[in-house]
Write a structure and sequence with these properties.
4-stranded antiparallel beta sheet, membrane, OB fold (Dihydrolipoamide Acetyltransferase, E2P), 358 residues, globular, Mo/tungstate-bd_C_term_dom, 2 domains, 25 strands, ABC_transpr_FbpC, P-loop_NTPase, alpha+beta
C-alpha cells in the first residue's frame, strides 16, 4: 500500500508540445492517501487511462514526478513499483488452467504452496470460479477470462496499489454489480490503495471513497459522491454526475440574486457582479413546478421512471429537467418553476464560485 503523489505531472503525446492544448494530461498536483479507493471518472479521451499508465509505469510523463510514499518512482519500471494492473480486455494465459493463472503472480514471487493454494481458493470464491479451477482458460467466455484477470490482479496482498482500467467492460450486468461489491469488500478487508478508471458514474460512485472527475486532461474535482452531487466544482461535474445532470442556465448575477431573462432567482450567498461566462446551476431534484410563481416553462413530455417522474421542459428555448415525486400530479396550470435558493450554484467560466455569506 502506498500514498501516491502527483508532482507537477503532465503528458503530451507530441514530441514538442507548443501549448497547453497539446497536452493530453494537463498539470496535476495531487496527493492520494494510502489505503483509499479512488475512481477516475470522465468521458472518453479525458486523460484517465493516460494518468493510470503513468502511475503504473507503462508511460513516462513529459514533465513532473510521481512518488510512492515520498519515494520518486518516475523512472522505475512497472515491476519495481510493485503494483498490480487489470486492463479493459482480458489478459490471461490460455494454455494454463484457471488455478494456474491465479497462482502465477504468487509462484513467480516464490510463495509457499500452502499460501498459494489458500489465496487462489479465496480469490476463486470471490470471482465465482471455484468450480472451474481445473479448466484451461482457452475456450472460456470473454467475461470468464476477465474475471480471471481481476482475480490475478487481486491475488497478491503485498502490492503498493491495485489499478483497474475499465475492467468490467466485458462483464455481464449482473456480474458487474457482484464484482464491484466484492472489490469494495476486498478494499475494506485489506486496505489496498485502489485506482479504478471508468466512464460509468454508477461504477465510480458505488466503488470509490473518492471520485476523481477528469475533463479535457484536467482533474476538475476530487470528492465523495455526496460532494459531487451537492457542490459540483465545475459545470462538467454537474452535467456528468446525476441522471439527469444539473441544469446550467445563463444568467446575470447581482449580489444575492441572479437574473434570468428579466426574472429574479434568489441566492443564499452574495457574489458581487461577476463577469465572463456567468451561469447558475441547479439539479433537477431542486426544481419545483408551480402554477404561476417563478420562471415560465413549457412542458414537452413527462417520463415516469418508477421511483419518480422526469419532466422535460423548455426554459426560454433551452432544455430544463425537473424531477418530481411519483405521486405528484402535474396539472395543466403548472407552467412555472422555482429553484431551492440554497441549492443554486453560481458558475463563472464553468467554475463554481464560493460567494460570501448574505
Amino acid at each position: 500500500m502506498a500514498k501516491i503523489t502527483l508532482d507537477n505531472l503532465a503528458h503530451s503525446y507530441l514530441a514538442k508540445p507548443a501549448s497547453e492544448d497539446d497536452f493530453a494530461l494537463k498539470q496535476l498536483d495531487h496527493v492520494w492517501a494510502d489505503g483509499e479507493a479512488y475512481a477516475l471518472l470522465g468521458s472518453s479521451g479525458c486523460g484517465k487511462s493516460t494518468l493510470l499508465n503513468i502511475i503504473s509505469g507503462l508511460l513516462h510523463p513529459s514533465q513532473g514526478r510521481i512518488l510512492f510514499d515520498d519515494k520518486d518512482v518516475t523512472a522505475a519500471t512497472t515491476a519495481d513499483r510493485n503494483i498490480a494492473q487489470v486492463f479493459q480486455f482480458p489478459v490471461v494465459y490460455d494454455t494454463m488452467t484457471v488455478r494456474d493463472n491465479l497462482a502465477f503472480p504468487l509462484r513467480n514471487r516464490g510463495e509457499s504452496a500452502a499460501y498459494v493454494a489458500e489465496r487462489v481458493q479465496a480469490i476463486a470464491r470471490m470471482i465465482g470460479m471455484e468450480d472451474q479451477l481445473s479448466k484451461r482458460a482457452r475456450g472460456l467466455t470473454a467475461d470468464a477470462k476477465q474475471k480471471i484477470s481481476l482475480g490475478r490482479g487481486m491475488v497478491r496482498e503485498d502490492v503498493n496499489a491495485l489499478l483497474f482500467d475499465e475492467p468490467l467492460t466485458v462483464i455481464d450486468p449482473h456480474m458487474k454489480w457482484e464484482l464491484r461489491t466484492q472489490l469494495k469488500s476486498l478494499h475494506h478487508e485489506f486496505g489496498h490503495t485502489m485506482i479504478y478508471v471508468t466512464h460509468d458514474q454508477t461504477e465510480a460512485l458505488t466503488f470509490a471513497d473518492k471520485v476523481v472527475v477528469m475533463y479535457d486532461g484536467r482533474v476538475v474535482q476530487i470528492g465523495t459522491p455526496e460532494d459531487l452531487f451537492e457542490t459540483p466544482a465545475h459545470t462538467f461535474v454537474g452535467y456528468f454526475i446525476g441522471s439527469p445532470g444539473m441544469n446550467v442556465i445563463p444568467a446575470e448575477v447581482q449580489g444575492t440574486r441572479a437574473v434570468v431573462q428579466g426574472h429574479d432567482v434568489s441566492l443564499t450567498r452574495g457574489f458581487g457582479t461577476p463577469s465572463g461566462k456567468v451561469e447558475i446551476g441547479v439539479r433537477p431534484e431542486f426544481v419545483t413546478l408551480t402554477a404561476g410563481a417563478g420562471l415560465p416553462v413549457t412542458i414537452r413530455r413527462v417520463e415516469d421512471v418508477g421511483r419518480h417522474k422526469i419532466v422535460r421542459a423548455s426554459l426560454f428555448g433551452a432544455d430544463l429537467n425537473i424531477v418530481v415525486g411519483e405521486g405528484v400530479e402535474i396539472g395543466a396550470d403548472m407552467t412555472n418553476v422555482t429553484f431551492a435558493p440554497a441549492k443554486v450554484g453560481v458558475y463563472v467560466d464553468d467554475w463554481r464560485q464560493t460567494g460570501e455569506a448574505a
